[in-house]
Structures are given as C-alpha cells and as structure tokens.
Amino acid sequence: MTKLPAFRGGFPQKNIYNIIYEVTNYMKLEEKLQMLRKKNGYSQEELADKIGIARQTVSKWENGQAIPELNGLILLSELYGVTIDRMVKDDDECNILLCRKRV
Prior knowledge:
mainly alpha; 434 Repressor (Amino-terminal Domain); two-stranded antiparallel sheet
C-alpha cells in the first residue's frame, strides 16, 4: 500500500502520485465506469449504441442504481482495453493503474 508523505508545516507534500492515490482510494465502480467512458471520448448514448444497450442503462450504472451484468462488463472490458478486475476491484493498485492512464 502506498503511504502518503509526512506532514511538513501542517500540510502534506503533494505530487501527482499522492493525488492519484487520494482520488482512487475511494473510487466506486460507478465512478470508474464514468471515468473510463469519458476517457475514451464517448457520450452515454454513444457507449450504449456501441454495446447494444439503452442509454438509461449506462446512466443507471454511472449513478450506482444498477450494476453491469457479466456480459456488459465483458463488452466494456474489450471496448476500453481494461481487464474486468481493474474495473470492479477496490484494490488500490488496480485503481491507481486506471487513473494513471487518465493523467
């Protein structure tokens, strides 16, 4: 697990990896799905058309009202070039790798 730097003068020293750690440490599945969609330049409608689902389904995934079924995860994984475990695990290492690609 990555450790944040020691405090200096009451404030932590920040660098890009500390910021990535802080952002991804609390990232939920719906946030990852939205981040991946935006990173790949798709609107909800474009993504829905690409994988053959309704735009409302994508919206529900990204709002945490629904979770993609395995078939949906497979399609997203292939489309984004990211393994399913990187999308669904809460593991810090998986989240940091997703976020590094974004920066």
